[in-house]
Amino acid sequence: MNRLKIFLFLLGIGLFGMGCEGPDNSPKALVNVLLVDAPAKWDSVVVEIQGVEIDFVQSGRQGEIQKIWMPYEPAKKSINLTRLVNGNALTVSRKEFQLGQITAVTLKLGTSHALYQGDTRYPLTLPSDITDYSQDLKVDLEAGISYDLVLDFDLEKSIRVTQASPLKLAYNPTIQAYTSIGRSELNGIVFPTELKPAIYAISENDSLSTHTNSGGAFLFKLSPGRYTLYIDPKDNRFVADTLINVEVKSDQRTTLDRITLSRR
C-alpha cells in the first residue's frame, strides 16, 4: 500500500510539473516565404510546389545548421505563376523562428509542370528530375520582426525555345531569393496595355525581369541604385524602348511616367 502511495505521489508531481510548463516565451521572429513571378511571353505556366526548406543557425549554436521544413499546405499544389505580377505574391508558408541566422533557402518542387499557349498544353520536364533549387541567403533574425523571404521564379530565364515549329522547350527553373528588407519599389504603366511586354531592370551584370498585367502595370522590388530599363514588346509591330539611369531610392516607391511603345 505504501508503495502505491509513493507511486501516486510521484506521478502527481510529474503531472503537476507538466501542467506548470507555460508556453515558450523565448524571443522569436516571424518568417514569411513569398513566391513572385518574372513571367515570360507564355499565356500561362503552371508549376507544382511542395514547400521550402530553410538552412538556419540558431544564436549560440554557431556551425550547427538546422533544416527547417515549411510546407505549402493547400492540397492543390499547382500554381499558375503568370498571375503573380505587379506586386501579387503567393504566400508559400510562414513560421516563427528562434533568433539566429538564415543561411540558405531551398524551393522544393513537385514533378508536374506545364506551359499553356492558347488551347495547347506543353509539358515541362525538370532537368535530370531535379526538384530542389537552392539559393544562399544571409538573414539575421531579430526579436519581434516579420521577415519576407521572396523567391523570384524567373520564367524568362527558366524556359528556352529549342525549336519553333513544332514548339519544343527546354526547362531549367531559375530562382532568385532575397529579403524585402532594404528593397524599394519601382513601378509604371506601359501602353498599349494589350502587349504585355517583358521588362528588364539591369544593374551592372545582373538583371531582373517581369511583365505587365492586363492594365499595363508592372512593379519591381529592387535594391537602391541606378538601373537601365529595357522594354521588349515581344511583338514585331512595335519598337523596343530603353530607359537609362533610372534611380531607385532607399525606402521610397519610384513611379515612372507613362511609357508608350512606338509602332514601326
UniProtKB/TrEMBL annotation:
Pfam family, one: DUF4382
InterPro entries: Carb-bd-like_fold, DUF4382
Highest taxon of the lineage: Bacteria
Positions of the DUF4382 domain: 29-163
Name listed for the protein in its UniProt record: DUF4382 domain-containing protein
Organism of this sequence: Algoriphagus aquatilis
